[in-house]
Design brief:
The chain is an alpha/beta fold and 305 residues long. Helix content is 39%, strand content 12%. The protein has a 4-stranded parallel β-sheet with strand order 2-1-3-4, with helices on both faces.
C-alpha cells in the first residue's frame, strides 16, 4: 500500500486525544482496515467508502443493544481494535469504556463528534452516566451529515496524507449520501410539522437530538435496566404528565426494557409504541439509516397525530 496512514498525525481535530500514535502496518496487505465502533458509524463509514478500492470496513459492536452504557469489550473486540488501521468512533463519551483499548492500539482514531454542537447529557432515573454530553448525535440527520463529512476527511488524510484533497472519492461519496439524506430530512420535517411542539415521553435517553431536529418537546426520558421494576413514584409521575399534557402514547426503544412503560399503560390506558435508536441492523450505506428513521417518523405521526 503506497501511503497507509503516512500522515495520520495530520488528522488534527479529527483524531481523538487518547494518545494513539499514527497507525503502521505489521503486514502490508494493500488494504486500509477501518473499524467502526457502532452500527450508525458503520453505516456512515460504508456510505463514504462505497466503491473505494483497498478499503475494508468492519463493525465492532455487532449485536442488538439498546445502549453501550454497560457494554464490555470481548476478546474478539480487542483483537479487532488491535488489527485496525483506522478506528471510527461516535465520540461525545459514547465509547469511553474502550478508551484504554484505543490508547493501546496503533490505529488512528477519527472522532465523528469533532466540531459538532453537543447537548448536555439528560438526567434520568435508573442509570448512572458519567458523560458530560449527550452522545446520541446520529439521531439528528443534520448531525449525521456532519459526521459523514468528518469521516470523509479523516479517511482521506489517513489514506493519502497531505495529498488527500486531490483524491475525491471519499468526498464525492459523502456529498452523494448527504444529498440523499437531506432530501429525506426535508420529507420528515414536513411530516412532523403538524406536530410541532408535541410532547414525547421516552424510555431511553437517546432522543434529545431527534426531538431538537424536528421541533418536538422531550418531556421526560427514563432509562431502566432490563428486568427492573417500576416504582410507584415513577408511575405516578409519568401518569401525572400524561394526564396534564393529554399524551396519547409513550415510546420505548426497540432493544430496551418496556417494563415501566407497560406498567404505566395499565395505569393510564396510554398506548406504548417503539422507536429505533438504530444501534443494530443489517445492510451498509446510508439507506438502512434512512429506513430506520422513516420508521420512527411514521410511528410518531401515527401515535400522536
Amino acid at each position: 500500500m503506497k501511503k497507509l496512514l503516512a500522515a495520520a498525525c495530520m488528522l488534527g481535530l479529527l483524531l481523538t486525544a487518547c494518545g494513539a500514535p499514527a497507525a503502521t502496518e505489521t503486514e502490508d496487505d494493500g488494504t486500509l482496515h477501518v473499524l467502526a465502533t457502532t452500527y450508525p458509524v458503520y453505516l456512515f463509514t460504508t456510505a463514504v467508502t462505497e466503491g473505494v478500492e483497498n478499503v475494508e470496513v468492519s463493525l465492532l459492536v455487532n449485536q442488538p443493544v439498546s445502549c453501550l452504557h454497560d457494554y464490555t469489550l470481548t476478546v474478539t473486540d480487542m483483537k479487532a481494535i488491535e488489527g485496525a488501521d483506522v478506528i471510527v468512533r461516535n465520540g461525545a463519551g459514547l465509547e469511553d469504556f474502550m478508551d484504554d483499548a484505543l490508547a493501546a492500539s496503533d490505529g488512528a482514531v477519527i472522532d465523528c463528534s469533532a466540531g459538532l454542537e453537543l447537548l448536555p447529557a439528560m438526567g434520568h432515573e435508573g442509570h448512572d452516566h458519567d458523560t458530560e454530553y449527550d452522545p446520541h448525535i446520529w439521531m439528528d440527520p443534520a448531525c449525521a451529515q456532519d459526521m459523514m463529512a468528518v469521516i470523509a476527511q479523516g479517511l482521506g488524510e489517513a489514506l493519502y496524507g497531505d495529498d488527500w484533497a486531490s483524491h475525491g472519492e471519499f468526498h464525492t461519496n459523502q456529498l452523494v449520501a448527504k444529498d440523499v439524506l437531506e432530501q429525506a430530512r426535508q420529507r420528515w420535517a414536513e411530516q412532523l410539522a403538524p406536530l410541532a411542539g408535541a410532547e414525547l415521553i421516552t424510555f431511553h435517553d437517546g432522543f434529545q437530538y431527534f426531538s431538537r431536529a424536528f421541533d418536538l418537546t422531550l418531556l421526560k426520558a427514563i432509562e431502566e435496566e432490563e428486568g427492573a421494576e417500576a416504582s410507584a413514584a415513577e408511575i405516578q409521575e409519568i401518569a401525572g404528565l400524561i394526564g396534564e399534557y393529554g399524551i396519547p402514547a409513550i415510546f420505548t426503544e426497540v432493544n430496551g426494557s418496556d417494563a415501566t412503560a407497560n406498567a404505566i399503560a395499565r395505569e393510564t390506558g396510554v398506548a406504548v409504541e417503539q422507536l429505533d435508536m438504530i444501534m443494530s441492523g443489517g445492510g451498509t450505506g446510508i439507506q438502512p439509516y434512512i429506513d430506520a428513521m422513516q420508521g420512527n417518523i411514521d410511528t410518531i405521526v401515527e401515535a400522536l397525530g
